Amino acid sequence: MEEGTLDNPENRRTNTPPPFSSSELEGVARYLDTDPDFWVFRRFRKLHLVNVLRMQLDLVRLEHKLDTQLSAGEGNEEENDSHTLLSDIQSSLSEYDAALSSLARFKSYREPDRNIVSELTEWGTTCLENGHPLLHGLEIPYPGNTCLKDLASIAAVEKSWTHRFIDKHHCLRRIFEIPEDQMPPEQRPSSKTRTILLYSEESVQRAEAVFLHLSFCILLICPIIGLSYMQSKMWKLVLLGIFLFVASLLFVGLVNMPNKSGLALVAGYAAILVVFLSGNGGP
Fold this sequence. Notes:
two-stranded antiparallel sheet, transmembrane, 10 helices, transmembrane helix, 2% strand, DUF6594
């Protein structure tokens, strides 16, 4: 068992969470609704697994009862018991299948970014003096034991390296800040209760797309110009290698795609340069 996870009882809060009012829970929900990145919840892996194991044992008992009835034969009374047993099997199997699907789906959720957890922690610790329902539910912050594997981000979109870099820097997020009239009243710059800086992820994605297209054009034009004027075979190969390396870093760092697609993109780029090189007399 991992020492940093909440499955280890030593890392959990020792006191029972206090009762919270509906207005406090509504305030947490309103805050989480400001950004899908804040939709972070506990996985409760141990509870999920214990629940599935309990259902599994129930099904084993039902399977044993069915085998016993089939081996004993059926009478009038046994027929009624058989219908009841089959109904129990059907409902238990439905619950078991649903629990397995839910467990597999929850396992597929990505971990939240650490800066998002830090923002949730900062907001929760400054809102109420006696604790907060959000922090009690997530079991954070526990000194030195905040483990992202225990948390699931269920609504955050997949982000590229640049997008995550902007997320972590307040000055960059300010560049893409959404218009004030589109912000919730409590998160506007003029509000004293403002706790976060909301920015447009669509604007970030558009800026990233423009940067990618410009970068790709530069990566095509610059080596073509350089290869046109170079006479040394060695320097042509060096230039080719440098631009292939830069293109690889660009595709890996900024583009979210599977490895095969990234390799295909780099191979296509290399093919363009090689065709130009061979048509230009070759190295």
